[in-house]
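Q: I'm writing up a methods section and want to include an example of the input and output format. Could you take the sequence below and give the corresponding predicted structure tokens, formatted cleanly so I can copy it straight into the document?
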Amino acid sequence: MTLSAEEDVKRPVTSSDQLTWLDQPVFNELPRLTVERLLVVLILIVTIFSRFYILGERVMSHDEVNHVVPAYDLYQGRGYAHDPVTHGPMQFHLLALSYFLFGDSDFSARIPAALFSIATVACVLFLFRPYLGRAGALLAGLFFMISPYMLFYGRYTRNEAFVGLFGVLTIYAVLHYLEKGKHSTLYLLTTVTALHFCTKETSFIYTAILMMFLLLLVVRDLLHLAQNLPEDTRRTILKALVLLLFALLMVVLAVGLAAYDARIRKIDPQTVTRAYEIAAVLAVLVATGAGGAALVLLIRSLSWKALSALRSFEMLLLVTTLVLPQLTAFPIKMVGSLLGLDWNPLDYGAAGLVRTSIFLLVLVLIAIGIGYTWNLRLWLGNAAVFYAIFTVLYTTFFTNGKGFFTGIVGALGYWLSQQGEFRGSQPWYFYALIQMPIYEFLAVLGLILAVYYALRHNKFATLPGDSPAHAPQQSDAPLQDVDETMPEVYRATMMAYQPQRQPIPTMALLLFWSVLSLVAYSLAGEKMPWLTVHITLPMLLAAGWGVGYLVDTTPWRRLLARNGVLVALLTPVFLLSFAGLLGSLLGDQPPFAGNEIVQLNATSNFLFAALMLAASSGGLVALTRDWSAKDILRVVTVFFFGVVTVLTARAAFMASYINYDTAKEYLVYAHAARGPKDVLAQVEEISRRTTRGKDIIVAYDNAALYPYWWYFRDYPNKRWFSDKPTRDLQEAAVIIVGETNVAAVEPLVRDDYIMFQYMRLWWPNQDYFNLTWQRLWQDISDPKRRAAIFDIWLNRDYKRYAALTGSQTLTLENWDPADRMRMYVRKDIAAQIWEYGAQPVQNVPEPDPYAEQMFNYAPDLVVGQPGDAVQFNAPRGIAVAPDGTLYVADSRNHRVLHLDAQGGLLQVWGSFAETTQAGAAPAGTFNEPWGIAVGLDGSVYVADTWNHRIQHFTADGMFINMWGTFGQASSSSAFWGPRGVAIDEAGRVLVTDTGNKRVLVFSPNGDYITQFGEVGMKLGAFDEPVGLAVAPSGLVFVADTWNHRVQTFSAGGNGLYLPVMEWPVKGWEGQSLENKPFLALGKDSTVFVTDPENYRVLQFQPDGKFLRGWGQYSTLPDGFGLPSGVAVDGDGRVWVTDAANNLLLRFSLPQQ
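A: Here is the clean output for your methods example:
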């Protein structure tokens, strides 16, 4: 029968009208290749291509490096130890596997993320058809494919791609179990939850949202059951439900209090009380009590079996008991807060582990008890799956036992501690007003459309089917019998309930998850762009449901039969011309504003848009005159979402394939610029051409650690240096340094290196900080600001905004905030390859600045020659006593010699002994003493260098005391090869702690007073300090060996030693253990320094002006083999030890 036009328009839309097009074969020859299957294949092909296209091109970002390097160590067999800072262990194991299969590279490091992102799209396409509808699942798969966040982080070595798949499977498992009730689905939910807990701490937010939703479902199901129960039972159930809702309210209150407490602690940590923290703890305790009371009431009124028959209750029970031990950090913090104790869940000491074990055991017993009461066999199976996965991954296949505790407590403990850090310092509206509108507007608009349909047609819960719009009103699932042991009243109730025949709350779950995710991540202390993935995920599914509903309810066959093709062609023209008209009216150049060229162009654009709008509108009116208003609105909405889909895909394309290494995009917190990879390419080329491999010496500082920690992983001669570089940096052929350390490196490189500058890291424009309603209104109402912001939104074009704000830092060349870096290439290396800016050159030795003032002085006394009573073996330090006698540190004889003024032996003490792990060497023994000094009372202080201590003796060698152990500079009692010792006018003992690059000051008895110096090159820093002396004025002179200078320090009244000046010493080039210079002060505080490997002694004025020098290489007393110690006696004669020729020489210098 043929319908009239009016009857055809009014005929209701049925599922056969909408869904048959999906079943149509694309080719008659291939009947199984339907439109639906072709679309699925196309979406998957494009998804695969989009995830792998130029996957390795983007520079490895800061956050990626934290994951790829530990995974590389695991791949290399160096093991892996879980650290909550870098989240769960799963990603590291997957990356190590990827390296094993495909080699280690940027590309292979991102393969796991890409595969999981592809799997996410596939799961949406294949698993969600019953819940989103066939069209909805296709659209949701398309939306996941083109989502800017899903695409970008599906190609990024972070956890988001993995969590995306787990989130989709979690939602599917909930819906599927509500529909089917199969235990295999519970195992799927358990497996996915376990993997999520092994991946990232977002698992706690996902689980909390899931548990709250399941709790609300339980409330709904119990209300449904209560309708058929006796009045008394119904009242008891209602009381229990009130308690459950009150418990949920208390949990929300506790979260709010904790978030507020973290915020005020960050703003003003000095005035914070513990009131909010304790209130949050009390709210949790009240919630626990209310929830427990509700459970008791429900069990008493309904019986445990009746409760367990509710699928929502079963899932809530299972998830709660599985994750209960994961919450161990909560009660530790809570009980600690109530007791006023600072119990830290991250305390892995003996006491901390015992405390953790006690709380963990309690929670495990509670979980087991509930599981036993529910369904022991099923619960044990799920618990075994959960904790098998958890234990294997956190212990790295049982090679790191501590990982179990860092996982069970550390993950949540660290995440809780970070909520007070406000990492990124992003505003509360960061997601709602910045990230979602810029990138995920399709997800937001699709969610709004879905909510509209769900409200209008009461579709928050629907039966599974081909389309939620045409879902059957009643399930055709067969009735099932109920446990006969259940009381009759409950059997009748459960028979009437029949969970397998209940509608599935698909839209309710997606809406609840979307809203709660947005609220949770907005309230959390850490707000980072990548967390937008977790907000977007449920919205994309809801958008698929909503747009699918729109597609399913649009009568395409009917409309296409009535000028539909022409309408389809005209509708885009109408939408574009309408957009153009709005753009002209709302832009910064309104029409009819003047006669200038720009204004006339604006007027002409407006008129053309108005003309096209009028023409297309007229055409559409004529073509749709027999259409209903609803059909017209549906078609316009479909085309609108088509445009939005294209814009979303464009935003994703720009972010992932065009702007991926620039700061124009907002979906990364710290963008790695292109510079690091350009530098890497040059280093690889230089190394290949100079070493035929990767053996080049390349140095990088702490700023460039990211990403070169990864990129130089297989360079055997890589060197890392801190913000205190030393002279050995000059050995590097290439030096890479961040801009913060340029000043420290410049004195080292000087004219010996060629410099290139690059951008290392940059952050997105942050003008959205501190938004107010006034600013927001100004941005909306001001045409110029509106147009500038639109340019940023559409094209990431900042030119108009920069001109409007007067900013000079919104071009990629001058972007700020940013961090630049420099690459220095040594000129002799560059000369070998020419392309790097230097022609071949010959190194011409610099002239000796001291040559004209060098003299030939002969010693007037030599001690230690063959046949002498005194013999030395590498003599080092010398000290002159007030009575004119001398003390010499005879280093390799491990003793001290006391000599008269003519070199005659008076006393000798000491023998060899070495400090070992078994204990310190006995008092009075030495292991190569170097430095020696005489105190104000005539006692002797000796630097027992390789026993890492100072020994104190009487003038005749009787032991008094000693102090010091081997250790790093973090301890004031530790030494690392002390060499120089000096006594000031107050009797204080100054010691050069050579290996720790500092000078320590002690009382005469060895009590620590202060210290000064640190490793580095700046004034006041040291690199291998050795000799030191103190002038009567208190001025301290220090031989800063590897910095090739002498520094002077003055003692302030507050006990601090402040640097005064420095002067360079042309010498001390070698870094051998022998090339250690001492210094001494003569008359008028002139400074004598030894230059061991240049075989000379140099004399300077106190201000560093060179006076004279003497010495040459010789194995006889007419020169030096290795001048080491130096001292000046009361007659002005200079004593020098020769550590190579084993002599002590005295010089009487002529007056100048």
